[in-house]
From TrEMBL:
Name under which the protein is recorded: HNH nuclease domain-containing protein
Species the sequence originates in: Methanobrevibacter thaueri
Length: 75
């Protein structure tokens, strides 16, 4: 399946948990954290990290898997 086809498939899913359990989404999370050197971009913490969307996951469906729309933050 091409990247475009994967995005179309994911963008049609209504349930957020369903999307977040896909391999593509998990790969996005991993890529964001790796890009940010496994550190919170705000404070440099290296524990309790999450990949967050800059533009809302819910409202900006086309950007869900865009690496430029991700940021690593701690909680």
């Amino acid at each position: 399946m091409s990247q475009k086809d994967e995005w179309i498939d994911i963008s049609k899913r209504k349930n957020i948990d369903e999307v977040r359990n896909t391999k593509e989404y998990k790969d996005w999370v991993k890529s964001i954290k790796e890009r940010d050197n496994e550190e919170c971009v705000l404070c440099g913490a290296d524990q309790h990290l999450e990949a967050h969307h800059v533009f809302s996951f819910k409202n900006f469906v086309p950007l869900r898997l865009n690496l430029n729309n991700g940021i690593t933050l701690c909680h």
